Amino acid sequence: MHRRHLVSSGLLLAAGLTLGSVASAQTTVNIAALADFAGPYANVMNDMQGGRLAVVEWWNKEVGEKMGVRIAVKTYDTRYDVAQTASLWPGIKAELKPALVLGLGGPDAAALQQRLPEDKVPMLFGTAAYGFGWKPGQWALNVRPTYSHEAAGFLEWFRTTKLEGKRAVKVAIITSEATPAYADMAKGLQAYAKANPDKATFVEAIWTEVQPADLTLQVRRLANAGTDVIVIQTNTAQAVATKRALQALGKNIPIVLSLHNGVLGSSKALGNPNGFAGDFEVGAIADASEDDTPARKFYAMLQTKYGLKSNWNSMTMLGLGQAIVAVRSVEAAAKAKGAAGVTGEAVHAVLLGTAFSGAELMGILPGVDFNPENPFPTGTAKVNVATMKDGKVVRVAADAPVPAIPKW
Questions:
Q1: In terms of Cα–Cα distance, which of 194, 195, 222 is closest to 208?
Q2: Which class for 121: exposed (0-12), middle (13-18), buried (19 or more C-beta within 10 A)?
Q3: Where are the alpha helices (DSSP H) in 127-215?
Q4: Domain 147-283+383-401 superfamily per CATH
Q5: Which SUPFAM superfamilies match (predicted)?
Q6: For the chain, which terminus, N or C, has the lower number of CB atoms within 10 Å?
Q7: Is the pTM of this model over 0.90?
Q8: CA 293, CA 12: separation in Å to the nearest integer?
Q9: In what order do the strands lie in the sheet with 200-207?
Q10: Which of 14-18, 50-54, 115-119, 262-266 shows the lowest per-residue confidence on average (mean pLDDT)?
Protein backbone atom coordinates (compact mmCIF):
# COMPACT_ATOMS: atom_id res chain seq x y z
CA MET A 1 0.00 0.00 0.00
CA HIS A 2 2.75 2.38 0.97
CA ARG A 3 4.69 1.86 -2.27
CA ARG A 4 1.60 2.25 -4.41
CA HIS A 5 0.80 5.44 -2.57
CA LEU A 6 4.28 6.82 -3.22
CA VAL A 7 3.97 5.98 -6.91
CA SER A 8 0.57 7.62 -7.18
CA SER A 9 1.84 10.64 -5.27
CA GLY A 10 4.74 10.91 -7.69
CA LEU A 11 2.38 10.87 -10.66
CA LEU A 12 0.25 13.56 -9.08
CA LEU A 13 3.30 15.69 -8.41
CA ALA A 14 4.41 15.24 -12.00
CA ALA A 15 0.99 16.48 -13.07
CA GLY A 16 1.15 19.36 -10.65
CA LEU A 17 0.55 21.96 -13.36
CA THR A 18 -2.96 20.65 -13.83
CA LEU A 19 -3.79 19.45 -10.33
CA GLY A 20 -2.25 22.37 -8.49
CA SER A 21 -1.70 22.49 -4.73
CA VAL A 22 -3.83 19.45 -3.87
CA ALA A 23 -1.17 17.05 -5.12
CA SER A 24 1.83 18.88 -3.79
CA ALA A 25 0.32 18.99 -0.29
CA GLN A 26 -0.05 15.19 0.00
CA THR A 27 2.30 13.77 2.65
CA THR A 28 2.48 10.21 3.96
CA VAL A 29 3.14 9.59 7.65
CA ASN A 30 4.25 6.03 8.43
CA ILE A 31 3.12 4.13 11.51
CA ALA A 32 4.43 0.69 12.47
CA ALA A 33 1.95 -1.68 14.11
CA LEU A 34 3.21 -4.60 16.21
CA ALA A 35 0.88 -7.59 16.33
CA ASP A 36 0.65 -11.23 17.42
CA PHE A 37 -0.93 -13.60 14.90
CA ALA A 38 1.03 -16.68 16.02
CA GLY A 39 1.40 -16.46 19.82
CA PRO A 40 -0.85 -16.22 22.90
CA TYR A 41 -3.07 -13.48 21.43
CA ALA A 42 -3.50 -14.99 17.96
CA ASN A 43 -7.14 -15.89 18.64
CA VAL A 44 -8.10 -12.27 19.40
CA MET A 45 -5.60 -10.26 17.37
CA ASN A 46 -7.79 -9.79 14.29
CA ASP A 47 -10.35 -7.80 16.27
CA MET A 48 -7.74 -5.44 17.70
CA GLN A 49 -6.05 -5.04 14.32
CA GLY A 50 -9.36 -4.34 12.60
CA GLY A 51 -10.11 -1.59 15.10
CA ARG A 52 -6.72 0.02 14.51
CA LEU A 53 -7.01 0.03 10.72
CA ALA A 54 -10.61 1.27 10.61
CA VAL A 55 -9.75 4.32 12.75
CA VAL A 56 -6.85 5.15 10.45
CA GLU A 57 -9.07 4.81 7.36
CA TRP A 58 -11.69 7.04 8.95
CA TRP A 59 -9.11 9.67 9.90
CA ASN A 60 -7.46 9.61 6.47
CA LYS A 61 -10.79 10.25 4.77
CA GLU A 62 -12.47 12.68 7.17
CA VAL A 63 -9.50 14.57 8.64
CA GLY A 64 -6.24 13.84 6.88
CA GLU A 65 -7.55 14.41 3.36
CA LYS A 66 -8.37 18.02 4.20
CA MET A 67 -4.90 18.50 5.74
CA GLY A 68 -2.97 16.87 2.90
CA VAL A 69 -1.81 14.09 5.23
CA ARG A 70 -2.25 10.35 4.86
CA ILE A 71 -1.30 7.82 7.54
CA ALA A 72 0.08 4.52 6.24
CA VAL A 73 0.22 1.53 8.61
CA LYS A 74 2.50 -1.47 8.18
CA THR A 75 2.03 -4.42 10.54
CA TYR A 76 4.72 -6.73 11.91
CA ASP A 77 4.05 -10.02 13.73
CA THR A 78 6.18 -10.14 16.88
CA ARG A 79 4.48 -13.27 18.28
CA TYR A 80 4.32 -11.41 21.63
CA ASP A 81 7.99 -12.21 22.09
CA VAL A 82 10.71 -9.90 23.44
CA ALA A 83 13.48 -11.33 21.24
CA GLN A 84 11.35 -11.18 18.11
CA THR A 85 10.41 -7.54 18.71
CA ALA A 86 14.04 -6.61 19.39
CA SER A 87 15.26 -8.36 16.25
CA LEU A 88 12.62 -6.81 13.98
CA TRP A 89 13.02 -3.26 15.26
CA PRO A 90 16.19 -2.17 13.36
CA GLY A 91 14.59 -3.22 10.08
CA ILE A 92 11.29 -1.52 10.91
CA LYS A 93 13.08 1.71 11.75
CA ALA A 94 15.19 1.63 8.59
CA GLU A 95 12.33 0.66 6.27
CA LEU A 96 9.55 2.90 7.56
CA LYS A 97 11.18 5.70 9.52
CA PRO A 98 7.94 5.62 11.54
CA ALA A 99 6.60 8.67 13.32
CA LEU A 100 4.85 6.37 15.79
CA VAL A 101 4.66 2.70 16.77
CA LEU A 102 1.49 0.93 17.86
CA GLY A 103 2.74 -1.54 20.47
CA LEU A 104 0.89 -4.65 21.57
CA GLY A 105 2.06 -5.36 25.11
CA GLY A 106 4.75 -6.13 27.64
CA PRO A 107 7.34 -7.77 25.35
CA ASP A 108 7.35 -4.69 23.12
CA ALA A 109 7.90 -2.43 26.12
CA ALA A 110 10.66 -4.67 27.46
CA ALA A 111 12.40 -4.85 24.06
CA LEU A 112 12.16 -1.19 23.03
CA GLN A 113 11.66 0.98 26.12
CA GLN A 114 15.37 1.82 26.39
CA ARG A 115 15.87 2.23 22.63
CA LEU A 116 13.00 4.52 21.71
CA PRO A 117 14.38 7.73 23.32
CA GLU A 118 17.57 7.36 21.30
CA ASP A 119 15.66 6.51 18.12
CA LYS A 120 13.23 9.40 18.71
CA VAL A 121 10.15 7.27 18.00
CA PRO A 122 7.24 7.16 20.48
CA MET A 123 5.27 3.95 21.04
CA LEU A 124 1.63 3.89 22.13
CA PHE A 125 -0.06 1.00 23.91
CA GLY A 126 -3.83 0.45 24.09
CA THR A 127 -3.22 -1.73 27.13
CA ALA A 128 -2.78 -0.55 30.68
CA ALA A 129 0.68 0.53 31.88
CA TYR A 130 3.41 -1.24 33.82
CA GLY A 131 5.25 -0.29 36.98
CA PHE A 132 8.65 -0.79 35.35
CA GLY A 133 7.73 1.92 32.86
CA TRP A 134 6.82 4.39 35.60
CA LYS A 135 9.88 6.53 35.06
CA PRO A 136 10.37 10.07 33.79
CA GLY A 137 11.24 10.83 30.17
CA GLN A 138 9.60 7.77 28.60
CA TRP A 139 8.83 7.28 24.90
CA ALA A 140 6.69 4.17 25.50
CA LEU A 141 3.31 5.51 26.59
CA ASN A 142 0.11 3.77 27.67
CA VAL A 143 -3.30 5.31 27.09
CA ARG A 144 -4.49 3.79 30.40
CA PRO A 145 -3.03 3.76 33.93
CA THR A 146 -1.30 0.61 35.20
CA TYR A 147 -3.02 -2.76 35.43
CA SER A 148 -2.65 -2.52 39.18
CA HIS A 149 -4.43 0.86 39.21
CA GLU A 150 -7.29 -0.72 37.26
CA ALA A 151 -7.42 -3.76 39.55
CA ALA A 152 -7.41 -1.47 42.60
CA GLY A 153 -10.30 0.52 41.15
CA PHE A 154 -12.22 -2.74 40.78
CA LEU A 155 -11.38 -3.93 44.30
CA GLU A 156 -12.62 -0.69 45.87
CA TRP A 157 -15.85 -0.92 43.86
CA PHE A 158 -16.25 -4.62 44.81
CA ARG A 159 -15.61 -3.91 48.48
CA THR A 160 -18.19 -1.11 48.53
CA THR A 161 -20.91 -2.85 46.53
CA LYS A 162 -20.46 -6.56 47.26
CA LEU A 163 -19.02 -6.49 50.78
CA GLU A 164 -20.84 -3.28 51.79
CA GLY A 165 -17.50 -1.89 52.91
CA LYS A 166 -17.49 -4.13 55.98
CA ARG A 167 -14.10 -5.74 55.53
CA ALA A 168 -11.05 -5.93 53.28
CA VAL A 169 -11.32 -7.87 50.02
CA LYS A 170 -9.25 -11.06 50.02
CA VAL A 171 -7.56 -10.97 46.63
CA ALA A 172 -5.25 -13.38 44.80
CA ILE A 173 -3.60 -13.07 41.41
CA ILE A 174 -2.67 -15.65 38.79
CA THR A 175 0.22 -14.59 36.60
CA SER A 176 3.62 -15.63 35.24
CA GLU A 177 7.28 -14.70 35.46
CA ALA A 178 7.61 -15.33 31.73
CA THR A 179 7.32 -11.64 30.88
CA PRO A 180 8.16 -8.53 32.93
CA ALA A 181 4.64 -7.18 32.33
CA TYR A 182 2.97 -10.24 33.86
CA ALA A 183 5.25 -10.19 36.90
CA ASP A 184 4.61 -6.49 37.35
CA MET A 185 0.87 -7.07 37.79
CA ALA A 186 1.51 -9.01 40.99
CA LYS A 187 3.99 -6.47 42.35
CA GLY A 188 1.61 -3.56 41.86
CA LEU A 189 -1.34 -5.38 43.42
CA GLN A 190 0.82 -6.29 46.43
CA ALA A 191 1.87 -2.63 46.73
CA TYR A 192 -1.79 -1.55 46.77
CA ALA A 193 -2.78 -4.14 49.40
CA LYS A 194 0.20 -3.27 51.60
CA ALA A 195 -0.68 0.43 51.48
CA ASN A 196 -4.40 -0.21 52.07
CA PRO A 197 -4.75 -3.08 54.59
CA ASP A 198 -8.27 -1.93 55.48
CA LYS A 199 -9.36 -2.36 51.86
CA ALA A 200 -7.47 -5.38 50.52
CA THR A 201 -5.73 -8.46 51.89
CA PHE A 202 -3.29 -10.09 49.48
CA VAL A 203 -3.76 -13.86 49.67
CA GLU A 204 -1.20 -15.21 47.22
CA ALA A 205 0.33 -14.82 43.77
CA ILE A 206 0.13 -18.03 41.75
CA TRP A 207 3.11 -18.12 39.38
CA THR A 208 2.48 -20.41 36.43
CA GLU A 209 3.16 -20.87 32.72
CA VAL A 210 1.86 -18.40 30.14
CA GLN A 211 -0.43 -21.17 28.83
CA PRO A 212 -0.93 -23.54 31.81
CA ALA A 213 -2.37 -27.03 31.36
CA ASP A 214 -4.00 -27.37 34.78
CA LEU A 215 -4.31 -25.12 37.84
CA THR A 216 -6.61 -27.23 40.04
CA LEU A 217 -4.15 -27.65 42.93
CA GLN A 218 -3.28 -23.94 43.01
CA VAL A 219 -6.90 -22.80 42.80
CA ARG A 220 -7.89 -25.23 45.59
CA ARG A 221 -5.32 -23.46 47.78
CA LEU A 222 -6.90 -20.07 47.00
CA ALA A 223 -10.38 -21.39 47.75
CA ASN A 224 -9.26 -22.86 51.06
CA ALA A 225 -7.80 -19.45 52.00
CA GLY A 226 -11.21 -17.79 51.56
CA THR A 227 -10.26 -15.76 48.49
CA ASP A 228 -13.00 -13.31 47.42
CA VAL A 229 -11.62 -12.35 44.01
CA ILE A 230 -9.04 -13.84 41.63
CA VAL A 231 -7.32 -11.26 39.41
CA ILE A 232 -6.11 -12.47 35.98
CA GLN A 233 -4.89 -9.65 33.76
CA THR A 234 -2.56 -11.79 31.66
CA ASN A 235 -4.21 -13.80 28.88
CA THR A 236 -7.16 -16.00 27.93
CA ALA A 237 -5.19 -19.24 28.48
CA GLN A 238 -4.68 -18.50 32.18
CA ALA A 239 -8.28 -17.35 32.52
CA VAL A 240 -9.58 -20.56 30.95
CA ALA A 241 -7.32 -22.78 33.07
CA THR A 242 -8.53 -21.02 36.22
CA LYS A 243 -12.18 -21.29 35.23
CA ARG A 244 -11.80 -25.01 34.53
CA ALA A 245 -10.13 -25.48 37.90
CA LEU A 246 -12.98 -23.66 39.68
CA GLN A 247 -15.51 -25.82 37.83
CA ALA A 248 -13.65 -29.01 38.75
CA LEU A 249 -13.60 -27.95 42.40
CA GLY A 250 -17.22 -26.79 42.41
CA LYS A 251 -16.15 -23.32 43.59
CA ASN A 252 -17.62 -19.99 42.55
CA ILE A 253 -14.95 -17.35 43.12
CA PRO A 254 -15.37 -14.39 40.76
CA ILE A 255 -12.52 -13.80 38.33
CA VAL A 256 -11.67 -10.24 37.34
CA LEU A 257 -10.12 -9.93 33.90
CA SER A 258 -8.55 -7.16 31.92
CA LEU A 259 -9.86 -6.09 28.51
CA HIS A 260 -7.45 -8.00 26.27
CA ASN A 261 -8.58 -11.24 27.97
CA GLY A 262 -12.12 -10.09 28.76
CA VAL A 263 -15.23 -12.11 29.46
CA LEU A 264 -16.28 -12.54 25.82
CA GLY A 265 -12.87 -13.58 24.50
CA SER A 266 -12.23 -15.87 27.46
CA SER A 267 -15.66 -17.48 27.07
CA LYS A 268 -14.95 -18.13 23.40
CA ALA A 269 -11.60 -19.71 24.30
CA LEU A 270 -13.38 -21.83 26.93
CA GLY A 271 -15.79 -23.08 24.26
CA ASN A 272 -18.87 -21.75 26.07
CA PRO A 273 -20.36 -18.39 24.95
CA ASN A 274 -21.64 -17.80 28.51
CA GLY A 275 -18.69 -19.44 30.23
CA PHE A 276 -17.61 -16.42 32.29
CA ALA A 277 -21.09 -15.44 33.47
CA GLY A 278 -20.81 -13.65 36.80
CA ASP A 279 -17.14 -12.81 36.32
CA PHE A 280 -15.87 -9.30 35.61
CA GLU A 281 -13.66 -7.25 33.32
CA VAL A 282 -12.28 -3.84 34.18
CA GLY A 283 -10.47 -1.11 32.28
CA ALA A 284 -9.98 2.63 32.16
CA ILE A 285 -11.52 2.71 28.68
CA ALA A 286 -15.02 2.35 27.25
CA ASP A 287 -16.43 -1.12 27.81
CA ALA A 288 -17.90 -3.29 25.06
CA SER A 289 -21.30 -3.49 26.72
CA GLU A 290 -24.66 -3.16 25.01
CA ASP A 291 -25.15 0.37 26.35
CA ASP A 292 -25.79 3.15 23.79
CA THR A 293 -22.53 5.04 24.38
CA PRO A 294 -20.55 7.46 22.18
CA ALA A 295 -17.99 4.65 21.76
CA ARG A 296 -20.68 2.29 20.47
CA LYS A 297 -21.91 4.93 17.99
CA PHE A 298 -18.35 5.49 16.71
CA TYR A 299 -17.91 1.73 16.26
CA ALA A 300 -21.20 1.48 14.36
CA MET A 301 -20.14 4.33 12.04
CA LEU A 302 -16.82 2.58 11.32
CA GLN A 303 -18.77 -0.59 10.50
CA THR A 304 -21.11 1.21 8.14
CA LYS A 305 -18.69 3.54 6.37
CA TYR A 306 -15.20 2.12 6.80
CA GLY A 307 -15.59 -1.64 6.58
CA LEU A 308 -14.85 -2.49 10.21
CA LYS A 309 -15.46 -6.23 10.59
CA SER A 310 -14.14 -6.64 14.13
CA ASN A 311 -16.63 -7.80 16.72
CA TRP A 312 -17.92 -5.46 19.40
CA ASN A 313 -15.66 -6.63 22.21
CA SER A 314 -12.90 -5.44 24.50
CA MET A 315 -10.08 -6.45 22.16
CA THR A 316 -11.55 -4.29 19.40
CA MET A 317 -11.82 -1.48 21.96
CA LEU A 318 -8.08 -1.70 22.60
CA GLY A 319 -7.42 -1.22 18.90
CA LEU A 320 -9.86 1.69 18.67
CA GLY A 321 -8.42 3.39 21.77
CA GLN A 322 -4.81 3.03 20.74
CA ALA A 323 -5.48 4.22 17.19
CA ILE A 324 -7.64 7.22 18.10
CA VAL A 325 -4.85 8.63 20.29
CA ALA A 326 -2.35 7.89 17.51
CA VAL A 327 -4.26 9.71 14.77
CA ARG A 328 -5.08 12.68 17.01
CA SER A 329 -1.40 13.02 17.91
CA VAL A 330 -0.40 12.96 14.23
CA GLU A 331 -3.14 15.50 13.55
CA ALA A 332 -1.89 17.83 16.28
CA ALA A 333 1.72 17.45 15.15
CA ALA A 334 0.75 18.30 11.56
CA LYS A 335 -1.10 21.40 12.74
CA ALA A 336 1.89 22.49 14.83
CA LYS A 337 4.74 21.61 12.47
CA GLY A 338 3.16 21.25 9.05
CA ALA A 339 2.57 17.93 7.30
CA ALA A 340 6.26 17.45 6.46
CA GLY A 341 7.20 18.07 10.09
CA VAL A 342 5.37 15.04 11.52
CA THR A 343 8.41 13.23 12.91
CA GLY A 344 8.61 10.92 15.89
CA GLU A 345 10.02 13.77 17.92
CA ALA A 346 7.16 16.07 16.96
CA VAL A 347 4.54 13.42 17.82
CA HIS A 348 6.22 12.74 21.18
CA ALA A 349 6.16 16.45 22.02
CA VAL A 350 2.45 16.56 21.19
CA LEU A 351 1.70 13.52 23.35
CA LEU A 352 3.47 15.00 26.37
CA GLY A 353 2.05 18.49 25.89
CA THR A 354 -1.57 17.90 24.90
CA ALA A 355 -4.61 16.96 26.95
CA PHE A 356 -6.99 15.10 24.63
CA SER A 357 -10.62 15.23 25.70
CA GLY A 358 -13.05 12.33 25.72
CA ALA A 359 -14.96 13.98 22.87
CA GLU A 360 -11.79 14.22 20.73
CA LEU A 361 -11.21 10.53 21.43
CA MET A 362 -14.76 9.68 20.28
CA GLY A 363 -15.74 8.45 23.73
CA ILE A 364 -13.37 5.50 23.52
CA LEU A 365 -11.25 6.95 26.34
CA PRO A 366 -12.32 9.42 29.05
CA GLY A 367 -9.42 11.68 28.09
CA VAL A 368 -5.66 11.27 27.86
CA ASP A 369 -3.02 13.52 29.39
CA PHE A 370 0.60 12.45 29.66
CA ASN A 371 3.44 14.35 31.24
CA PRO A 372 7.21 13.75 31.38
CA GLU A 373 6.94 12.12 34.83
CA ASN A 374 4.21 9.55 34.11
CA PRO A 375 3.99 7.53 30.88
CA PHE A 376 0.24 7.04 31.35
CA PRO A 377 -2.73 9.38 31.88
CA THR A 378 -2.20 11.43 35.02
CA GLY A 379 -5.63 12.99 35.44
CA THR A 380 -8.29 11.50 37.68
CA ALA A 381 -8.48 8.00 36.21
CA LYS A 382 -11.81 6.19 36.07
CA VAL A 383 -12.63 2.58 35.30
CA ASN A 384 -15.65 0.84 33.85
CA VAL A 385 -16.62 -2.54 35.29
CA ALA A 386 -18.61 -5.04 33.23
CA THR A 387 -19.87 -8.57 33.80
CA MET A 388 -21.32 -11.30 31.60
CA LYS A 389 -24.99 -12.23 31.62
CA ASP A 390 -26.69 -14.50 29.08
CA GLY A 391 -23.62 -14.38 26.86
CA LYS A 392 -23.54 -10.59 26.72
CA VAL A 393 -21.33 -7.97 28.35
CA VAL A 394 -23.32 -5.85 30.80
CA ARG A 395 -21.96 -2.74 32.48
CA VAL A 396 -22.24 -2.76 36.26
CA ALA A 397 -20.22 0.37 37.06
CA ALA A 398 -19.28 3.43 35.04
CA ASP A 399 -16.50 5.86 35.95
CA ALA A 400 -15.55 4.15 39.20
CA PRO A 401 -12.66 6.04 40.84
CA VAL A 402 -9.10 4.72 40.73
CA PRO A 403 -7.11 5.02 43.94
CA ALA A 404 -3.51 6.19 44.20
CA ILE A 405 -0.92 3.45 44.56
CA PRO A 406 2.62 3.94 45.90
CA LYS A 407 5.21 3.60 43.16
CA TRP A 408 6.61 0.07 43.20
A1: 222
A2: buried
A3: 147-161, 180-195
A4: Response regulator (3.40.50.2300)
A5: Periplasmic binding protein-like I (SSF53822)
A6: N
A7: no
A8: 41
A9: 200-207, 169-175, 229-232, 255-257, 280-283, 382-389, 392-401
A10: 14-18
